[in-house]
């Protein structure tokens, strides 16, 4: 599982690095530039024009930490916005590896063992993409039209990931029965537990699916948050924004 990509603080650290003719400046040269108080500076046997804003940013050096989503955007676009200015940005280390894996795209996958359904080509593509995203510790939005088998695709993803921890499905109450029937139909060996209603509990949950509603999620957030989940699925995800 690729969640370690976002475990390291270094992954999200953003530092300025100035360059002259594409060749990065050394720490000593950065100090020389930061201490300059004139618009033209002698550097590497040539005179260079110094932008006062760059001097200020060079003195600042470290710009702090980025949020994960911002770090990912920087990695994919190769640019970052700092103080209202768009500048080139080069990801390194784990973030560069994450970018490379995303840009390479998903590998072809087959329906996993235990799935009693034949997936169509578009479902296999969706499964491959979701498998890539979750393997990197990222989320994704499967936005196939209604009736095209998103539930089956998610059941296939659960089987493919083969995590010991259960998959939590959050959905409107009207869809609890459909999820339970679909899991029983397409993955009959996988246990299903409803976490909904007055008698709900999570005792003895070990793998499989746990189904709950957005209303229950709000009232039982603390109980659900302390559990380890292999994956969390939000069905009819607009309810996350408009509960």
How would you describe this structure in keywords?
243 residues, Rossmann fold, 2 domains, four-stranded parallel beta sheet, 10 helices, 12 strands
Structural features, described:
The protein is α/β, with parallel strands linked by helices. The protein has 2 domains: 2-101, no CATH class; 105-241, Rossmann fold. Helix content is 38%, strand content 18%. It is built from 10 helices and 12 strands. It has helices spanning 27-35, 52-60, 68-77, 93-104, 121-135, 150-161, 176-186, 214-219, 221-225, 238-241; strands at residues 13-15, 19-20, 23-24, 40-43, 46-49, 62-65, 79-82, 85-88, 167-171, 192-194, 209-213, 231-234. Strands 10-11-9-12 form a 4-stranded parallel β-sheet. A hairpin with a 2-residue loop joins strand 2 (19-20) and strand 3. The longest helix is centred in the middle third of the chain and has 15 residues, at 121-135. It is elongated. The two termini are 30 Å apart.
């Amino acid at each position: 599982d690729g969640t370690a990509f976002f475990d390291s603080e270094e992954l999200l650290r953003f530092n300025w690095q100035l360059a002259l003719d594409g060749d990065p400046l050394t720490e000593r040269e950065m100090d020389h530039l930061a201490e300059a108080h004139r618009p033209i500076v002698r550097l590497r046997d040539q005179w260079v024009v110094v932008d006062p804003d760059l001097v200020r940013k060079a003195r600042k050096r470290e710009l702090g930490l980025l949020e994960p989503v911002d770090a990912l955007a920087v990695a994919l676009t190769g640019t970052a916005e700092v103080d209202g200015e768009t500048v080139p940005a080069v990801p390194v280390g784990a973030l560069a590896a994450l970018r490379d894996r995303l840009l390479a795209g998903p590998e072809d996958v087959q329906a996993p063992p235990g799935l009693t359904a034949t997936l169509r080509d578009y479902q296999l593509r969706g499964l491959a993409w979701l498998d890539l995203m979750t393997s990197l510790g990222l989320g994704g939005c499967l936005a196939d039209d209604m009736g095209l088998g998103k539930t089956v695709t998610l059941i296939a993803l659960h089987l493919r990931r083969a995590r010991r921890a259960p998959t939590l499905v959050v959905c409107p109450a009207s869809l609890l029965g459909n999820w339970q029937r679909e899991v029983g139909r397409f993955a009959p060996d996988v246990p299903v537990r409803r976490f909904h209603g007055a008698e709900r509990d999570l005792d003895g949950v070990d793998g499989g699916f746990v189904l709950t509603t957005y209303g229950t999620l709000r009232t039982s957030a603390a109980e659900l948050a302390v559990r380890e989940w292999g994956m969390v699925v939000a069905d009819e995800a607009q309810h996350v924004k408009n509960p």
